[in-house]
Amino acid sequence: MRKYVLRFLALGYLLAVLLGPLSMVFFRAFDKGVDPLWKTLSDPNTVHAFKLTLIIALIAVPLNAIFGVVCALAIVRRRFPGAGIVNAIVDLPLAISPVVVGLSLFLLYGRTGWFGPWFARHGMQILFALPSMVIATIFVSLPFVAREVVPTLREIGDEQEQAARTLGATNWQTFWRITLPSIRWAVVYGVVLTTARCLGEYGAVAVVSGNIEGKTQTATLRVQDAYENFNQSGAYGISLVLAAISVVVLVTMTLLRPKEEQAL
Amino acid sequence: MSIEVRNVSKRFGSFQALDDVSIDVDGGALTALLGPSGSGKSTLLRIIAGLESPDTGEIRLAGEDATPLTTQQRGVGFVFQHYAAFKHMSVRENIAFGLKVRKRPRDEVRSRVDELLELVQLQGFGDRYPAQLSGGQRQRMALARALAPEPKVLLLDEPFGALDARVRAELRVWLRRLHDETHTTTVFVTHDQEEAMDVADSVVVMNKGRVEQVAGPRELYDAPANEFVMSFVGQATRIDDTWVRPHDFELVLAPNGSTREAQVERVVHLGFEVRAELIRDDGEILAVQLTRDQAAQLELEQGQIVYVRPTRATTF
């Protein structure tokens, strides 16, 4: 009996908090039919916003994947000094509000910031341009890969790596042939979460991008823009595409994962 | 290839794992490192393999200083207690690993793996994954994997520790046979004295990070160097200042001058022999081992009074 109550509560909570609002987005997007929806989505500025979001994700995700694996190795294997500090600060982006991240980038790269003047002198535009948007996105999506990989690395231990070394494998070979295959699903899952976070990032990017339509406007920024301009079906339409991408990615993930675990 | 360990010490924090240890292992020998847990035997093995580095002292392989060499450069085969199987690779891929990282030609790898699969009696299991093997099969796979690159030295860290008694006994015989065929210098770590005595030519007894004695199985039992070896290798009862093995007692039913009175506390029939626990008149507890015939003659049973005399005692 208690089992059913718990299940009911859990499902009810998910329904109310997650699925309800999401399905509302779906219905409202088609509120006024397909035409206005299509008009918004085929707008060159909307297409550009999606492209920009994608470009940022394509830069941020691989960098964070590499950094996340290196961080996880540092935290778990502790082969070099300072590993403890890495462990402590890798979660920082989860604790800090993205808006604060955006503002701190402003302080660093702004006209009076620490690095701002140097970049300005060398003719490089950081703020209100792609670089700062990428940096902001990298910052907020930093911890996901490391957080997924750390427990897996702990679980597999380092005996297999030791065995590989006694068999003559170099550190590089050991990483590619033993460590990485053992943690690959944790990496994939971390990459999925990172991607989702990158696509959905709003706060930090909103601060540093300047939100210039057709130039520095990402998909999430465009949603906000459309909403404020009373283009509700447009806002819901873009939201729908963003939500659909996330759902597809997560479902693919869930389909892949159990198969792998059976094989092991 | 001979192994020389020279004055090796190793600390983990405040724990002295090894304290000035020196041993020699001749090329082609089969040596056991025997000791209770925490005696430093595994640490010593890992230092020989280069998986740990000593705080002081040196390791010489084939007469050359190997202390600065990495594990990869030492060319040793290592077998772990918990197999350390590469879970994402098939048995074949596991065994081939050491050859593939050396970029050996594909045909050579294939024929060597076939050869090894046969040697460890895993033909037909090549395409399975470690999770689909029993513990004994996994350990045989691990052995084949360690042997594949033809190491000069084979090191085994409690190789049979995680297996059940019957499989253990089988693998023991098998390891001995393997060594007699290949004559690879082999060192294995065990806390099981029977295993050490059964398999090894030479046994290094370790305790608290030090070497207590290095000897052949027979010498170890008959001429232990000190009280630790006496009590750790085989059973022994301490009576005042002397040590007596359970089979070195004479039991009679009537006193004859040199005997002392004792009461039978417990009798255990093990089939091939009979063990008894006696309490001597001064309260000393004696562990005694008798043959079936002796026990039958005495009609040994609990509460009975017998007269006992050590026939052979060792004093340190």
Question: Briefly, what is this?
Answer:
Chain A has 264 residues and is an all-alpha fold. Chain A contains 14 helices and no strands. The longest helix of chain A has 34 residues, at 44-77.
Characteristics:
heterodimer, A: 264 residues, mainly alpha, MetI-like fold, 2 domains, 14 helices, B: 316 residues, alpha+beta, 6-stranded mixed beta sheet, 5-stranded antiparallel beta sheet, 10 helices, 18 strands
Blueprint (SSEs and pairs):
The complex is a heterodimer of chains A (264) and B (316).
Chain A: H1 2-29, H2 34-42, H3 44-77, H4 83-89, H5 92-95, H6 98-109, H7 116-121, H8 130-140, H9 143-156, H10 159-166, H11 171-200, H12 203-209, H13 219-228, H14 232-263
Helix pairs in contact in A: 1-14, 2-14, 3-4, 3-8, 3-9, 3-11, 3-13, 6-8, 6-12, 8-12, 9-11, 10-11, 11-14, 13-14
Chain B: E1 3-12, E2 15-25, E3 30-34, H1 41-49, E4 56-61, E5 64-65, H2 71-74, E6 76-79, H3 91-100, H4 106-119, H5 135-147, E7 153-157, H6 165-182, E8 185-190, H7 193-199, E9 202-207, E10 210-215, H8 217-222, H9 227-232, E11 237-239, E12 242-244, E13 249-252, E14 260-269, E15 274-280, E16 285-290, H10 292-298, E17 305-310, E18 314-315
Parallel strand pairs in B: 3-8, 3-9, 6-7, 7-8
Antiparallel strand pairs in B: 1-2, 1-4, 4-5, 9-10, 11-12, 12-18, 13-17, 14-15, 14-17, 15-16
Strand share of the residues of chain A?
under 5%
Instruction: Give the chain pair forming the largest contact, with residue counts.
Output: A-B, 18 and 27 residues
Q: Could you tell me the number of beta strands of chain A?
A: 0
Relevant CATH superfamily of the largest domain in chain A:
MetI-like
In DSSP terms (H or I, runs of 4 or more residues), the helix count of chain A works out at: 14
- Structural class by secondary-structure content of chain B: alpha+beta
Helix-strand string of chain A: HHHHHHHHHHHHHH
List the total number of helices of chain B.
10
Number of beta-strand segments of chain B? 18
Largest sheet of chain B: 6 strands, mixed
The domain count of chain A comes to 2
